[in-house]
């Protein structure tokens, strides 16, 4: 026994002694290097905060543990050579170091350093010291996101042993062309190069061909590279990760880029262009004047690529060659302007785990092969034009954790059963045309956290479910879901958002069912068919985290009691209900409230029967629109923190004097439009930015605007006198200037200063203004987007300065006395979409274009009621690109946040005012002039036209049969000309044609029959004695005229735009049906046309169902 113990003691002694001797043999950190590190640390302060966290790197003050006199090899972040003790590695990433980085830093004394990581600190916008180039042993250098600024020094190229270099930042560093060329020439061992958001304007893309053949990782994002990126880079033999992002910046980012890089010539020109052009704040902007042209290889493309992330505005189609990259695990081509269909060859990428083709223009059906990629964990095809049935096989991809097919044109229904998506955490199918029921399995997936089916055509009722799953976010809004709200929703205790708004949910709902949803932050039941929504009178529970509650249009008859206890609530919407009384004590506990909407509860009484002095300290926005309010209440005037106030569409009468308005000192947005006010003295509202007083009874002269105001809307009042020059003081420093003084009795001339200001929208139509139109855009006013001077008395020629209004979209000068020739020089304006010159004294021939690209964005042109002569401008018809195709134009209206464009269209010989202009609405009106000659065949190329009017001219010759190609045409007027020959039978192909006027010509022969021509009456053809057949009385030899298949009706019933209009344009082409629906809604077309369009939509649906 003793021998055994002695043996084990010997073993333990040997191991212990050996360990101690090994430890003693390891050299400690040399004193000079330890001292250099202490000096380096002492040159900065330590400041950690939440703002330091980046890419899940939690900040840690590593250098706090550094103590002088201790072995630096044991310090956090320091690595020493095991043999010599020299410091060879320093990782101070996310170490909260703050302060200037001196060029003589003691860090540069550590000549043995091989790896240096200073990422995610803040070195106070210090330049990158050239002394970094003295650390010639470095193999890894990372100074990304550390607050360095300025030029990358040439000395970086001296680090010939570097295998990894990361200079990423936030447009703080500039890498000049000659420096980059030296880097790629000298750093022959480079394997990883990361240059995210480094300014590289002067770098020639061809220089990337000189990079090390060892390169495995290349990251280029937001660099401002311009020109053609060499295709050969995609063929580099060792390249495993390639990320190239053309760069999409918002103005705030651009401002920083320009401030930091302005000292460099390459950046200076771009920044000058940017600042002077003043790009709209709500638009993203691509770096560089021409951008980086990237083309993926179409043939012979293979290699070890595992990750490919490329974004470029110059992509076109994705070729089958992508299927040769069999090692790909990540493919991200989002935001790349891809067109065409998704290639089936993607199915070859069997290792693919991440596929993102979102934000492109891809169309057609989803290839079945994609759903054979069984390793996919991330699939995002959102925001494209993909169509066809929702592919059921996508729900068989068992590894999926993220599935986003939102904002496409998918139809069909959800599968009735899905059980294999155990890992799915996000499912987003919003913005399609899915129909059918909301299936119960959606609420039973064990990992699902986010479910969005917003904006489809789903019906109901919602199927019952009983599992409690981790769902946190449910958005089923904007569908057609019927039935009651399922009680099972209120067992989902993890819910933070529940949005069931804008459906057809019915029945009674007791708000007390919400009591279990303690994590709920947002809730919306708005816009349903609920018969009532109530809560117990003694409700004492609270939802402590609820911040936003929307119960608009819910048939609520009184203020819900449970709302009184929602102490954390910041936004409350009870609009469009039947609430009659609001008591001040209802808000006693709602001290966190920031936004309150009680609009459209009429009549609404704001009462304070208990004489409470109620102040909601954080209330910023209050809407009481359409509540039959007659005066300002005490509750209103005591809310000193209000910045947004909407009292529009009430019956507030009389005056608001300076004394009565002194309570709104913090107001920035005020809407008092559609009341009965006669005087509003708004000078006391010192912080006002948006003031809407339209449609009142305001009288007298126009008052000077508050100095802070940017938007002033005073249309449809009784203002008189001249426009004072003080109107030019509108503030344009923070937001776009919008001035609407239309429909008043103002007289005199436009103040010259208005043309010189940076104004965005100027609407003065329907006044009595006269004189010459002043110069616009002549001295720096580059922002003008809309100018409407219609129905005044302006005379003289058109100012040539309009040619400099490069952002002009709408120019309406109709119904004045302007005497000039056609302003062909406006054709260079790249964004001009609407040009109205009707009813003036324009004269002469329209000069033929030499440049075929002029007026390329124009889609509404009205030259009617002038004195133009000569032939029709054939060359212009060829250059109207937007009238030939609106396929890539997003459906919507021409309007901004505070202003909507309007215009008058002549249809059926009647002027119809369109209060909103659809973005796909295209018209050409050249009526009531002296044009002569023939109508050119090229008119048939303008296939997007909905209204064409050449009436009351001296046109001769035949009606071109090419007009039958204008498939969207809804109104055609060629009356009162000298046209001859027969009516082309091809015109019967115009399936949307609802207005036809060929009267007062010299047409002969049989009137074509079929489709829309069966609906036109005799007045479409009067004054053409040579015509015969239905509907005129003259027979063509037949015993009876053919009877029409459809009868026109003059029914003015309201029409709701149905989704089938969308399907009329199924595929990648133009959605014609929207225009038909739009015209019907705007001027109420008869039921027969509605039925025809809906029937066509049903035909399309039946075609899809054949493939189900």
UniProtKB/TrEMBL annotation:
Gene3D superfamilies the UniProt entry points to: Ribonuclease Inhibitor (3.80.10.10)
Entry membrane topology: Single-pass type I membrane protein
Transmembrane segments: 1059-1079
Database matches in InterPro entries: Leu-rich_rpt (IPR001611), Leu-rich_rpt_typical-subtyp (IPR003591), LRR_dom_sf (IPR032675), RLP23-like (IPR046956)
Assigned keywords, A-Z: Cell membrane, Glycoprotein, Leucine-rich repeat, Membrane, Receptor, Repeat, Signal, Transmembrane, Transmembrane helix
Keyword Cell wall biogenesis/degradation: no
Signal peptide feature range: 1-23
Source organism superkingdom: Eukaryota
Compartments in which it is found: Cell membrane
Pfam families recorded: LRR_1 (PF00560), LRR_8 (PF13855)
PANTHER family, per the entry: LEUCINE-RICH REPEAT RECEPTOR PROTEIN KINASE EMS1-LIKE-RELATED (PTHR48061), LEUCINE-RICH REPEAT-CONTAINING N-TERMINAL PLANT-TYPE DOMAIN-CONTAINING PROTEIN (PTHR48061:SF46)
Family per record: Belongs to the RLP family.
Protein name: Leucine-rich repeat-containing N-terminal plant-type domain-containing protein
